[in-house]
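Fold Annotation — chain and its backbone
Next Lines — sequence and tokenised fold

***
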Amino acid sequence: MLPGPRVLVLDGDYPTSLTIAGELSADLEATIVGAGTSRYSRLPRSRYCDVAVTIPPPDDPDYLDALWAVLEATRPQLVLPVGYESAAALESVRDELPDSTAVCLPDPDAFETAADKAATMAMAERLGIDVPTDYSSLVETLDAEGRERGALEALEFPLFCKARREAGGGHETTARVVDPARFWEVYDRLQSASPTGEVLVQESIDGSSVTYGCGLFCRNGEIELRMAHEELRSVPRRGGSGTHLRLRRDPALEAAASDLLRELEWDGVALVECKRRASGELVLMEINPKFWASYALASAHGYRFASRLVATTLGLEDRLPDRPLETTGEMTFPLRELYYYARNREAERLLECVRAVARPGVPWNVDRSDLRAWLTPPAALLEGLPTGIAEAGRSGDSEVVAFTRR
């Protein structure tokens, strides 16, 4: 049997990287080169990681130099970013990648449109897709005039604020504001977290607390794989990452998501997120130009976006197993829920959080055969531990040195 592809999976601190590594190992017998920011990162500790390397985070000035060193030493056939920041970094140097290493990313202009939420909304309006009413220009005017008392009377609360551009790195860049007295406090906090300092202020779509998502894999704008879900519970509670999700056939959502990515002539994966008004009308929230945090739901039910991306890019479609695409299914994300509780104990109730994710008959996203990796605390809890150590994965051959800060 021919050997499987050698794939460098980035962003090994993210739980999604574990799902992707396990999927590629099972479907394509891939050799996984797993990159984390320290030996304590999740992916380097996974049973699915054959070669573990450490490199700085994408916002580090040495990131690209370290990534280049990994590519030269490990010679992967494909490099796969999981998070936004690593995808953006690769976009900036895609033409400089070695000929032997492939990457599946959208055109830079398409990526820029998806990363810029204002540009995304403008494109959606041209396509006839409903978007939230925008108050950003009015708020900028009020801000420039000195935030006088009573100036916010022109706005209709509640409002939803979000950084104009993707930030990555786990930053909370969205917030729903109910009380006008707290508006400027929230606005300033999001402005500090925004990569450009720009904050969009929009109407809050309050028909339902549920967020609807459609994940897609496209090649040159053609839809290769598509799956819709509904996010029943999330952290933070509005506009965050899901902790309880279920599959949902949603023709209107799937059609809108497909129209958006065809318009962009998209290459790669993306998640289109929407809300619904009380009338049931679909309203676009954003396009996430990357693998999404709840990707495990898709992978567990046959929608193997990562395997399809790797196989299609490398011409290995005939090696993909024939998996049925399930139309029903749920999943909870207990570690994400409990980490959120640990950071917000004054506002959250432990019993409620446990009940939300410990649902009879609903599986967890945690791979019990890979607990050493899954139970690794988030990187934020391990700050200050030494970095710069590479270790072997399941293959046991220590062939790689660390690629990190000097």
Remarks:
- The first strand starts at residue 6 and ends at 9.
- The chain has 13 helices and 13 strands.
- The first helix runs from residue 15 to 28.
- The chain has three domains: 1-104+368-406, 111-115+207-288+329-335, 133-203.
